Structure formats: structure tokens, C-alpha cells
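Hey L., structure's done. Input below.
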Amino acid sequence: MKRELPAYAVLPPCPVTVVCTYDASEKPNGLAVSWTGIAVSEPPHVMIAVRPGRYSHAALCERGEFTMNIPSEDQMREADYFGITSGRKTNKFADLGLTPVPAEHVHAPMIAEFPLSLECRVVSRQEIGSHSVFIAEILAVHAEEGILDEKGRIDVTAMRPLSYDHAKYLYLGQGPVLGRAFSAGKERKKE
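Output:
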């Protein structure tokens, strides 16, 4: 039997992303964001939720452009650092020895060492409770060759993206492939 719990932010696991902008002085900055996801597939849009008190919030509002960078399991410590350190006080890229690369379609840096980067332009912002929710169109996708399959598609098993368990504050790795979507349930389907 299921037990009712108080309502809280739960949709496990959450993706781990680092959203990057340039600040007002053109310093590259990044913020770990797990309140994110695909908003719509055609045309492709993502959503991110950021607290107004975060240093990156002003740049997101003023510039309306960002990159979303997805770390692999091996980059857990770097991703966590982007979330526990403020860009007000330091240059996170320099601290971590990471390379900010100018995006091609938006004025924001990508993280060269992370395997996947999305260039995004904000199309909508709404204030909801404790966060500003930004809806942004994905203008370009940049993927390392090593995470692409023979058809040029992203291979998640090769990428090994990092996930986050908000309830226990844990980072998780990618598990084994369990089946194929739009196929695994066919044995249960009644004709």
C-alpha cells in the first residue's frame, strides 16, 4: 500500500546540468541546475528554474541566452562545485581549470570538457513561488564525437550523464539498459 507524503519537489532522478552565461563584466559563469527538463519537442525547448537570489539570475534575465552543459559521471565534483560556489566571489572556470568556449548562436560560454552542450535562447519567463522559470528554445546542440553512435545520435550509455536524487542529496550514475521504448510494453498490449 502506498503512503501519502507531504507535497514536495520530487520527480526522481533529476538531470544534472550546468547553465552558463556571461556576467555583466563578460566573465564566464555557470550554475548547477537540476530543476530542468524538456518543455516541448517541436521546436525543441527546455525549461530551467532558478532562484532570483542566485548570481546567474540577473544574467539570465538581462541577456536571455545561456548554454546548458551536461556533465558525465566523471565530472561530478566539477558539477557540484558550480552549485556550491558563487560566481559573485570567484571565477568558477578558472578555479576548476575548465575551458569556457564561446557558443556559436548565443552570447554565452559552453564548457569544453563536458560531453554535451545546448545553446538556448529564452522565449518566456514566469515567476512561480521561489523560482523564475525560463523556457528557452534549443538553437544548437554540441556533442563530443565519443558519445555519438554510428548514426550520429547521442548514445546515453557512452555519455554516462550524471543524475541527482533531491530527497537524499545524492549523485547517481547511469544504470544498465533495460529495454527499448515504444517496444518493451508490446508484450502487455492487448490487440
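The helical segments are 55-63, 76-84, 92-96, 156-159. Residues 14-188 form a domain with the Pnp Oxidase; Chain A fold (CATH 2.30.110.10).

-- N.
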